[in-house]
Structures are given as C-alpha cells and as structure tokens.
glucose-6-phosphate 1-epimerase
Amino acid sequence: MSSAAATSVATVPNEKSPVEIHKGINGLEKVILRDIRGSSVESNFKPPKPIRGGIPICFPQFSNLGSLEAHGFARNRFWIVDPSPPPFPTHSSNKKYVDLLLKPSEEDTKIWPHSFEFRLRVTLGPAGDLMLTSRIRNTNTDGKPFTFTFAYHTYFSVSDISEVRVEGLETLDYLDNLQNRQRFTEQGDAITFESEVDKIYLSTPTKIAILDHEKKRTFVIRKDGLPDAVVWNPWDKKAKAMADFGDDEYKHMLCVEAAAVEKPITLKPGEEWRGRQELSTVPSSYCSGQ
Ligand code: BG6
C-alpha cells in the first residue's frame, strides 16, 4: 500500500501540499482550483496541524463539542491510499475515484479509545463534479459502541463574500456558535454576508446552493446522511487573529459544511455509517429548487 498525507482532501497542489491525492485522480486539480479554495498562503504544513483550505474532514468530533481537539483528529493524520479499492455498487466506468483509509494509531486510541476503519472515496464525475463518500465502520473487539459527530469542512472559493447568497437554509433553525450555541430560526430570505457568521443549521434539505454573482456561477451541494449544514466566515477581526490565514482571505472564501452535529451518530461493533457530499457547479442563471 502506498502512503499519502491526506489531511485535507482537495487542497490545491503546490510544493508543500499533500499531492498524492491529485496523482490518484487525473484532472481533479482543475476542478478544485476553480471552486474549492486551496490552502491559505499562511497555512501551516507541519504535522500535526490542519491545513486551512480544501475539505478538511472533521471526525470523530465537530468543533469543540467534546473532549478532543477542535474538529477531531482525522484532519491531522496521514491516510493511506488503497491500491485496490472495492467497487461501489453504483460505480460507473466514466467516473474516476481514489479511496483513502484511516485507522487509529496506538496514540489515537489513547485519546479516543475505539477501533474504526474510515474509508473516504473521492470521486470525480465526467462533468467535473466532486463526490466524497465516507464510510466509517466500528471495528471494536470489546463489544463497545462509539459515538461521533462529523463534517466536510468545505472551503469554497468565492469572488466577493459580500455578493454571495446561500439558498436552501432560509426559515430553518440554527445554533449560533457566536451566541453560546443558542437556537434561533432563520428569516425567510436567502443568507447573505456582512459580518462574521458561524452557524449550525439543523435538519437541512439535501440540496444547498451558493450563488456567486460575480463569478456567474452557482455551487450546488447535494448531501446524504448529513442532516446539518455549518456556515462559517471569520470576517476581518477573526481572520487577522488566525495565524494560518491571510488578513483579507475571508473576502474570498465561504465554508458551507455538510455535517452531522446535532444528533451524534452511534455505531455498534460491525456497523457502518455512510455520509456523502457531492459538489457541482452550474451557470448562475440556474434557479435553485429542491
Ligand atoms: C467551523 C466552526 O466549522 O470551523 C468554527 O463552526 C471554527 O467555529 C471554524 O472557527 C474553523 O475551525 P478551525 O479549527 O479550522 O480553525
């Protein structure tokens, strides 16, 4: 098996980034360069720090909702490329994919005392859509279940955050991370941005659209098994306070994260969970509907 650093799926290839994934999927970087924000110029590439950009995987804990480091340890680990991945039942021959595997090290089991196999399939569709499918299996031999929260922490590249709208989350309940995770209900309009935002939208639809007027593009997120959606932009003050982020980069990024946060997932030994996120783009004349 060849080993690869995979702390953040889909980071823009550069000499410091974990490029093995890009070798695995020919042409993937063209899609990513366009719509997924690559690693910040200020990113710290020294393990075990996460890379700011791409799609960090938050597992087995989202944010600081538990005793582990923020967003869990999966995003800070080296993953393995599976050289002979099993076919998915729905796999079609015009899709290219690579499977990454994560299993806990002895050190990991000291901080999270469970055995698991995490298989992340990264699939590139013929039209350039990017699909991430996570399969997490409880491989505990002591009969114990485990519980986790999860997010695809996707950094979208936007032309100007002030011109961006998110559709699909209006009228939903959310927990506001900036107000002690109190619960509120979103108003009827699409979400726009004029200050820091850090919200966990609950029980969201399977489709969310990010409209970027300047780019004349709409990013479409389709998800399965991931009921929640986190929306985050640090805005100016927090961006300045983040050592691994450029002061002005907040203007050109938006995180919309397919997630399972409110209701943690529990797996008994032998059980498997699946969470899927599919990203595609369409011209901005596209009218979003469910
Ligand atoms: C978001 C969280 O998912 O990630 C925010 O909702 C957090 O609260 C942000 O600030 C960035 O997290 P990190 O650990 O990558 O700095």
The longest strand covers residues 253-267.
